[in-house]
Design goal:
Layout (H helix, E strand, L loop, with lengths): L1 E5 L3 H13 L2 E5 L3 H8 L10 H10 L3 E4 L11 E4 L14 H14 L6 E5 L7 H14 L7 E5 L9 H6 L4 E5 L2 H8 L9 E4 L1 H12 L1
Parallel strand pairs: 1-2, 1-4, 2-3, 4-5, 5-6, 7-8
Antiparallel strand pairs: 6-7
Helix pairs in contact: 1-3, 4-5
């Protein structure tokens, strides 16, 4: 599959490096043009063991490139992995502005899309956010229907700093909270080469499992 990774911070960089290592073709999207130049020059601005080497190797194989420009269409991509940050506000609530912006971008691209596109949330959010906020933004922006024109899956990451690549390929488990079985089945294909138990749960359960693991 061809993957779009939205946000090339810590989670997005590690995810891009590891999924390209598996053999997926990954395009990373980030609004920071300086960061994009570094990635495409073979330099990873994220300090994490093995990530830069994996991205350089992927670039040579044409399995990874970074861009600050949105693709013209989603039709050549099977999945979008949203990895943007959700930093805490002063009152402790997560700032969803980056997440909402990406969902609007995906929705605008879905307008002219002719194939099913799976949206996979990797960002940390409170339970209910994906179903009650993010899904609605994509539907309202695109005029398309979840479960029919696009899918949604909450797929939390459990990556520790300094061992993120090892954790990616040797996770304790993989959690998929899909809107429907089709969305979940497509997302599960990302992990076929990783021998680990996959738990299919409700979207809200996937969200709260991430919160609990962080705690």
């Amino acid at each position: 599959m061809n993957l779009l990774v939205w946000g090339l911070g810590y989670v997005g960089s590690v995810s891009s490096a590891c999924f390209s290592k598996i053999g997926f073709k990954v395009t990373g999207i980030d609004k920071d043009k300086n960061k994009i130049k570094l990635f495409n020059s073979g330099i990873c601005p994220i300090d994490e063991p093995d990530v830069e080497n994996l991205l350089v190797e992927a670039g040579k194989k044409n399995l990874f490139n970074a861009s600050a420009i949105l693709p013209k269409s989603l039709d050549e991509y099977e999945c979008s992995l949203i990895c943007v940050g959700t930093p805490s506000k002063e009152n402790g609530e997560p700032d969803l502005s980056f997440l909402k912006s990406v969902c609007k971008d995906i929705g605008s691209l879905l307008i002219n899309s002719n194939k099913f596109h799976n949206v996979i949330i990797r960002s940390t959010v409170f339970p209910g956010t994906t179903r009650n906020i993010l899904k609605n933004i994509i539907e309202d922006t695109s005029g398309k229907k979840v479960g029919v024109d696009f899918g949604i899956v909450m797929n939390p990451e459990f990556l520790r700093e300094a061992t993120a690549v090892k954790d990616f390929f040797n996770p304790p488990y993989t959690i998929l909270g899909g809107y429907d079985s089709n969305s979940t089945n497509i997302a599960s294909k990302l992990y076929e080469s990783i021998k680990v138990d996959i738990y299919n749960v409700k979207i809200e359960e996937a969200e709260i499992l991430k919160m609990v693991n962080n705690a």
